[in-house]
Write a structure and sequence with these properties.
Shape: globular
CATH topology of the largest domain: Aminopeptidase
Radius of gyration: 20 Å
Number of helices: 11
Strand content: 15-25%
Structural class: alpha+beta
Distance between the termini: 43 Å
CATH architecture of the largest domain: 3-Layer(aba) Sandwich
Number of strands: 10
Order of helices and strands: HHEHHEEHEHEHEEHHEHEEH
CATH superfamily of the largest domain: Gcn5-related N-acetyltransferase (GNAT)
Low-confidence stretches: 5-9
């Protein structure tokens, strides 16, 4: 081994060293062995918090670790796990989603995360996301992705603030039912999201947010050739097929999702909504547009 390779090997941090720096109030633990008894606790927590959507079994978590993936958790009082998150670094044959089965070598995949209800609102989700990004970079990945329900506005907002863009849609991500649809969020470690700090007062969004489109009117708006299009959306666990189709139409016609902002639709707090904003790739600088388009086309081909 030459000196450069020996030096790089010696300098590479362990996963535990990488993730523990992000545990602020509660330490983060790397569950790095298929025999670790914590895997059962991770699966139980995942089923409790994600059962109505898409939870993984203990065997599926074990398979992630066996294939070189990462599972991390915050440890709370009484040595009890209060969060869980997984990161896939290689594809897994027989995985439950297209990105699990067809993960490109350049991409890491955040395969879900959850935080116990009593510990939400403390920034733990962001810590889990930052920790997985650090691991992905250390492993030489060029980008990181996650799948999310179309109307999970809270998660989408948080990810956009962290530099992600909405890049692809999959109507059958986990199966053939409408509840199985997801969109893919991507963070390119070189490009990031240049629009992550956009707020509703920004000049770029001013016209778009004044003319927010209802999902049913997306075809007419698309035909107008607008560079920036904002669609009304409300946080919900319920599936809105019309909204999902509007998002799919934009993502499959040269747009990416770059911002999600609060909007007023009435006088009371209950009359508030959000607007998901999409930007046409052709309106971006050529080098940026081409780089994102390549990523978009490859991911879309994988997720269907």
């Amino acid at each position: 081994m030459d000196e450069d390779k020996r030096h790089n090997s010696e300098q590479k941090k362990t996963t535990q060293e990488l993730v523990e720096q992000f545990g602020v109030d509660y330490p983060i633990e790397d569950i790095d062995s298929p025999e670790n008894p914590r895997l059962g606790e991770v699966a139980a927590l995942d089923a409790e918090l994600n059962g109505s959507h898409q939870s993984l079994s203990e065997e599926e978590f074990r398979e992630i670790v066996e294939n070189g993936g990462v599972i991390i958790s915050h440890v709370g009082p009484g040595n009890k796990l209060i969060s869980e998150a997984s990161l896939m670094l290689t594809s897994v044959e027989g995985g439950s989603s297209p990105l699990q089965r067809g993960l490109p070598e350049w991409l890491a995949y955040c395969d879900g995360s959850a935080v116990s209800k009593d510990y939400r609102g403390k920034g733990l989700q962001k810590q889990l996301l930052n920790a997985r990004e650090a691991v992905a970079k250390e492993e030489g990945k060029l980008a990181i992705a996650a799948s999310v329900r179309q109307r999970n506005v809270t998660s989408i907002k948080s990810m956009i603030k962290c530099g992600y863009i909405m890049i692809a849609d999959s109507p059958h991500y986990y199966g053939d039912e409408v509840k199985d649809a997801r969109v893919v969020m991507l963070k390119d470690f070189e490009l990031g999201n240049p629009f992550k700090d956009l707020d509703s007062d920004h000049e770029m969004l001013e016209d778009s947010l004044r003319g927010i489109v209802e999902p049913s009117g997306i075809q007419e708006k698309l035909a107008s050739g607008s560079d920036v299009i904002s669609i009304a959306v409300q946080q919900s666990d319920e599936v809105d097929e019309v909204y999902n189709q509007a998002v799919a139409t934009l993502l499959r016609n040269g747009y990416i999702g770059v911002a999600c902002n609060d909007i007023d639709i009435g006088d009371s707090d209950s009359e508030r909504s959000d607007a998901m904003t999409f930007v046409k790739l052709e309106s971006l600088p050529l080098d940026v547009a081409e780089a994102i388009k390549l990523r978009q086309e490859e991911i879309q081909s994988i997720v269907g």
